[in-house]
UniProtKB/TrEMBL annotation:
Domain ABC transmembrane type-1, residue spans: 57-326
The ABC transporter domain, residue ranges: 360-592
This protein's record includes keyword Ribonucleoprotein: no
Protein's name in the database: ABC transporter ATP-binding protein/permease
PANTHER family per record: ATP-BINDING CASSETTE SUB-FAMILY B, HAEMOLYSIN SECRETION ATP-BINDING PROTEIN
One matching Pfam family: ABC_tran
Localisation: Membrane
Entry keyword annotation includes Lipoprotein: no
Amino acid sequence: MAELELPRGERYRSLRRVALHRPLLTSGIVATSLVAMALEGIGLSFLFPVIEAAQTGGALSTAEGGIAGRLLSVYAAVGLPLTLEFLLLGLGCVMTCRYASAFAVKWLAAKLTKGYERALKDRAYELALGASVAYYDEEGSDDVLNAVLTQTRYAGRVIGRIVQFFQQGLLCVAYAAIALAIAPLLTMAAAVALGGLTVLFRYGIEPGYAVGDRVATANEQLQETAQAGTQGVRDVKLFGMRSDLLSEFRATLDRYATTSVAVRRNEVAIQSFYQLAVSLALFGLVYVAIRYRALSVSALGVFLFAMFRLAPRLSSLNATVYAIEGELPHLVRTHRFIDQLADRQEETAGAAVPERIDEIRFENVSFAYDDERVLDDLSMEIEGGEFVGVVGPSGGGKSTVVSLLARLYGPDDGAILANGESIQTYDLRAWRETVAMVRQDPHIFDDTLRYNLTAGRSVSERDLRDAAETALVTEFLDDLPRGFDTVLGDDGVKLSGGQRQRVALARALLTDAPVLVLDEATSDLDTALERRVHRAVETLDGDRTVVAIAHRLSTVANADRIYTVEDGRVSETGTHSSLTARDGTYAELYAMQRSERVES
Ligand SMILES: Nc1ncnc2c1ncn2[C@@H]1O[C@H](COP(=O)(O)OP(=O)(O)OP(=O)(O)O)[C@@H](O)[C@H]1O
């Protein structure tokens, strides 16, 4: 993903999105935090009479004013004796509830954090699977992987911190309220001093989101480099790219570590120096309170207790805000990624696909991947049940033709019609079940041969064997240690190129799709095997339409119709014999391949 500024509005929208994800849970956290705050306040107010009792040797009276007075009148109303023991008992009960609610907040916060992370991952992966191939062409799969797995984790973490901020913030409010009730002027003076310090730290240190954004970018680059090294490990070794990749990875790792340390350093700097400043301010307050204010011993005790509880929380609150800002870019980027993906979804809904495909027509189709036209006013016709060959020089647009047929992309101009209807109007999933495509370099899943053949569908043993027979998978089946149950390894490393292609062909045959597209699907087989596979496919059943792209022209010599595609257009059409009789590209390519065969 591109490195982008994080506008303030986008940050707030991201936070709002989290808050509205599970409104009940969010409200539960807010309510429980408020309860914890209130209980903390009540707990503190117990200190008044406790200190009072300590001073008077246990005697208490309801004549006390202010907070203590209110507390004592509650005791009187409930009918509890006003003794030190009962006061401590009351304090114990309040504290138990206070910490039980703190536990509840943390538990609910974990539920929200992990639940949101799960929801983000789920949504991101679902959208990633539904995104158009063009999106992957632009963004690359490594960015998608990073967003789905890593960014979402950081995004979840930021929520936990926000809850922590909220809970600690409310406790600070409780202490400040008590202090304000006891000594309003002193508290206000302290608030001005601490507020000034907060502003100073905020503007004196690089903003958290700026450093955090750099961490997020470095993280993305790390993923890209790591993936390039591991996925392309063979070429990395063969072309001596190890040291280049390693130094690139290390440079990114350094950036990642340096920026991560910067976030943490700033966070702890805020925490430590703020704590120092707060402690110094506190001593000042204590001095003033003792020296100039006529506070009672109990009021002074509670005031100081509140201040001492407030001070570390305030400094960690500032550090938490900084950490939140540092991690917010991950949340914003994840939301941005999800929105981008949602905009780039394939249009799936559409009309039912006819049971029989009688005819497919490309009518003046033009297409460009980016700005460069790859297909230019191309027209061709495929009759149901025909075997059609597509040949031509490399880069002419053959694979693009069949990618459009499988609706991996849509035409920019013109139309592709099946039975007279544009294929774009058909239900996408049903259309892809109609067209089975075998690519030159198919993906083999790191699973059993059986899974790779059935693609997870339930298929009868007999159909499995038949498809394996037709695609000549049976030729190497006995060499696999566990037959159909052999695990084929990461991207089928345990198979040769030709074996992988045969597995992919059998997978396509098992779908029973009426249109079979072979895009250089047997190019890795030797000529004899390729011919055997093709003969088996051609004689499958009369109803199946086969479109085969081939460089080796002998593969399509039996085709009912052959199209030569050059520079994005059809340059000639005919059967093998009619085309070889002409003085065109096909005849030229054929003559060249024949002489190569004779020479070898
Ligand atoms: N995903 C893509 N994004 C951008 N350009 C692409 C993409 N796929 C193919 N192209 C470009 O489109 C042009 C036609 O490619 P295409 O694969 O359709 O040709 P082809 O005739 O099948 O070639 P080959 O015989 O070498 O497989 C080429 O110039 C290629 O670089």
